[in-house]
Amino acid sequence: MFFAKLLNLSVGVLSVLAVPPSRKTCGTEISEADKVKAEKHFAAHKVVTVAGNSSTRAATIDVYWHIVSRDATLSGGNIPDSQITEQIAVINKAYATTGLSFVLAGTDRTTNVNWFNRAGPSTTEQTAMKTALRKGAARDLNVYTVGFNSGSAYGLLGYATFPWDFESKPSDDGVVILYSSVPGGTTAPYNLGHTLTHELGHWVGLYHTFQGGCTGSGDGVADTPAEASPAYGCPTGRDTCSSAGLDPIHNYMDYSDDSCMTEFTPGQVDRLKLALSTYRSLSV
């Protein structure tokens, strides 16, 4: 879905997604040492709040949406409220099996050419933007829409922090996405809203389905078949590892086209619930 690089943030990681000229791909990397460190911390601090199947319970996450534009036009990033409403509906549908629901708690609009063009991981523009705009606590989702037009962030689709990053750097917490990736945007065929679905997956504690390739512990979820590399498009029947199961091309944490993405596995749901109770004080 996205071409990217992964930046280490203390014990956590930051997912970054980008758009090359002809297709959306991703190359998210985390060293095994950093992953082991994060997973050890998760295992040692895991907070289990619900026994058994908790599918009948629900937790509401407030979403604070920050529209950062270069001017007052749609092409300048000033997306309408209707697209945000559609995007909230998309993530609610995608996360319906998790017990999570998302409610728009507020929208603000900021015209800032530097933030719009250059905000990206570890940039001064990002720091200034998030310091000025972020709202809420660990359990609240902050979404920033920008243009990724220049600098180190040029061409990105989005990036997100992981839940275990919050304690060390709360002001950095949240998801930043390309404004034209929301439903009805112009980044076809990646304009159905699943850039946010995918990045939100990292925000709740999920790795990519191809994490670790065909060996090792992979994404830490037993029911996502091993996958050697990200899937592009919607390659039905793709099978890149000798272990059981076809590649999970329909999973929101792979990199297939938006129209190909349809599911999280029960194992991913269990993991994100534990991550949310451990790091975001959310019981689902």
UniProtKB/TrEMBL annotation:
Keywords: Disulfide bond, Hydrolase, Metal-binding, Metalloprotease, Protease, Signal, Zinc. Coiled coil: none annotated. GO terms for biological process: proteolysis. Residues 186-276 form the Peptidase M43 pregnancy-associated plasma-A domain. It comes from the Eukaryota. Residues 1-18 form the signal peptide. One of its GO terms (molecular function) is metal ion binding. Belongs to the peptidase M43B family. PANTHER family: METALLOPROTEASE MEP1 (AFU_ORTHOLOGUE AFUA_1G07730)-RELATED, PTHR47466. This is Metalloprotease. It comes from Coprinellus micaceus (Glistening ink-cap mushroom).
